[in-house]
Amino acid sequence: MKPEQVQAQLTRVLSEAISELRDPRVPMIVTVDHVHVTPDYGLARVYVSSIGGNMPDLLSALNHARGHLQREVAHQVRMRRTPMLEFRDAADSRF
């Protein structure tokens, strides 16, 4: 599978999984702006943004839920190895 396809699938799966989190630190609307996977698919940097949310709290909540989110990715995206998820503020992204 090409990196672009993997990134698109991860964006879709994570957007849905994050919207279902029941953590008070996660605002109602969280956008997964983009996902960047390393060439070996070992790491996926997930760039998120939200309206009216506290970004440090959001990143903390997502890191706390990392195991759950990785399991969702493993169930829904067919890959040999599920990448480690790393959450970052989309405002800090540099393509």
Which ranges are low-confidence, i.e. pLDDT below 50, for 5 or more consecutive residues? none
Helical proportion? 40-55%
Tell me, rounded to a whole number, the average pLDDT. 92
Approximate strand percentage: 15-25%
Inertia-based shape: globular
CATH architecture: 2-Layer Sandwich
Order of helices and strands: HEEHHE
Strand order of the largest sheet: 1-2-3
Count all strands and give the number.
Answer: 3
Looking at CATH, which topology would you report? Answer: GMP Synthetase, Chain A, domain 3
Any idea what the radius of gyration is? Answer: 12 Å
At the fourth level of CATH, the homologous superfamily is: K homology (KH) domain
What is the helix tally? 3
- Give the structural class: alpha+beta
How far is it from the N-terminal to the C-terminal residue, by CA?
21 Å
CATH class: Alpha Beta
Oligomer: single chain
